[in-house]
Design a protein that fits this description.
It holds the Pfam family PP2. InterPro entries: F-box-like_dom_sf, F-box_dom, PP2-like. The strands form two sheets. Strands 1, 2, 3, 4, 5, 7, 10, 11 and 13 form a nine-stranded antiparallel sheet that branches. Strands 6-12-8-9 form a four-stranded antiparallel sheet, with no helix packed on it. It is an alpha+beta fold. It contains nine helices and 13 strands. The chain has two domains: 65 residues, no CATH class; 182 residues, Galactose-binding domain-like (Jelly Rolls, Sandwich).
């Protein structure tokens, strides 16, 4: 029995060795085809398997699959010599800025791990309230902003902010999160109450709605609206980013497949609204970002 078990183990070992050899003998084009069906992160990991995998993982056939169809229009000069270099040029902090003469614009880049499109709309591209005329907002440069101008709230009583984006601008069949990117100045007012709401919708369908608070301050909340409504555990609060801006998660959505994305009339809308009518000031809006849920 012992000799039979040893023989079986030896045969299994030879089979595994043969399987590894066969995998290494695959043509580079076959390996590239398989890697193109994975993700940028997985392709980079597979490059360590063997020389064949390394060459396939760096080929244009693989990285062309990870690039969006309009990548050439997004690339800043100089032109990249390979598809992988083009991808890395659009990844993470290598945002592409497109601005018109009025300072409005958007930044587009790729999430390095997944290849999903990230889009940031500047404050100029948002719908901002103008109930008191142009005295409501002041357009000004900001040292931390990627855009030439941000919007600083001077004074208003009704505050609602809307971001509109064609669904076709985002990667199909991908889970996204929308974020309000903002800061506040000293002496800000009316931003500390938990009566703020965010909503995200795709077309006519609302995908998420949340109660939020940009600047939680229990003392100020008690002073203006009393104890009621300020102890909820469901109120979302912002997070401080490494670039110095604060971001508030507005909600999540999932884009449709290729056919759904081709419908130009389908629109993604992310909104932030303060439900109470009272004086507000000191909010600095850089924009709204749409980023894939899994980077």
């Amino acid at each position: 029995m012992g000799s039979q078990a040893a023989a079986a183990e030896e045969e299994q070992s030879r089979g595994s060795t043969a399987a590894r050899a066969n995998m290494g003998d695959l043509p580079e084009s076959c390996v590239a085809h398989v890697l193109a069906l994975t993700s940028p992160r997985d392709a980079c990991r597979c490059a360590a398997v063997s020389p064949t995998f390394r060459d396939a993982a760096g080929s244009d056939a693989v990285w062309a699959r990870f690039l969006p169809p309009d990548y050439r229009a997004l690339l800043p000069p100089p032109a990249r010599s390979s598809k992988k270099e083009a991808y890395l040029g659009l990844a993470d902090s290598a945002a592409v800025l497109m601005e018109d003469g009025g300072g409005g614009g958007m930044a587009v880049w790729l999430a390095k791990g997944s290849g999903g499109k990230c889009v940031a709309l500047s404050a100029r591209r948002l719908c901002l309230p103008w109930d008191d005329g142009e005295l409501c907002w002041r357009w000004t440069p900001h040292p931390l902003s990627r855009f030439s101008e941000v919007a600083q709230l001077v004074d208003c009583t009704c505050l609602d902010i809307y971001a509109h984006l064609p669904a076709s601008m985002l990667t199909p069949a991908t889970a996204y999160v929308a974020y309000l990117v903002f800061a506040t100045v000293d002496g800000h007012r009316g931003l500390s109450f938990p009566d703020q709401e965010t909503t995200v919708s795709v077309g006519d369908h609302i995908t998420s709605r949340h109660t939020v608070c940009l600047r939680p301050d229990i003392v100020e909340t008690h002073r203006f609206i009393g104890l009621e409504g300020c102890g909820s555990d469901d109120v979302r609060v912002p997070a401080l980013r490494t670039d110095g801006w604060w971001e508030m998660e507005m909600g999540r959505l999932r884009t449709g497949g290729d056919h759904a994305m081709a419908r130009e009339e389908e629109e993604v809308v992310a909104s932030f609204e303060v439900l109470g009518w009272y004086p507000k000031c000191g909010l600095v809006v850089e924009g709204v970002e749409f980023r894939p849920l899994c980077l």
